[in-house]
Specification:
alpha+beta
Length: 132
Amino acid sequence: MTTTNYADAFIAVSPDSSATIGDTAPKPGSVAAIQLELLQARPYGLTSDDLLFETHARRNDLAETDRAEARAAFFAKPQACLRASTLVKKHGWGIHHDAESRIAAVAVESAEYATLKARADLKQTVGMRSKR
């Protein structure tokens, strides 16, 4: 099984993003909207793997009884980490991973974002660019 989890890390907004605030209304039903809804409902309650699979499960209407098998199949193939999420590429959200790999979305305009971005004890990375 592959994993997308980081520990003690911060994914900053992509360098080519034009977002100056965290967009709280991505297109309803989109991957970004589902991810943001889950992260805002449960800050530091999910890992990156949990978020990616739950988003997949919701978009594909997976029954609760089918999820264990579906999760194993989902992670049998490599998955893109949250550096590729449109939350960091387009919508103005950084992603903080704590020591237990649990995550929270942090709006680019917030004081918390600036603090996390400046922390030397966190692995610092940025979202992937949208353009080459």
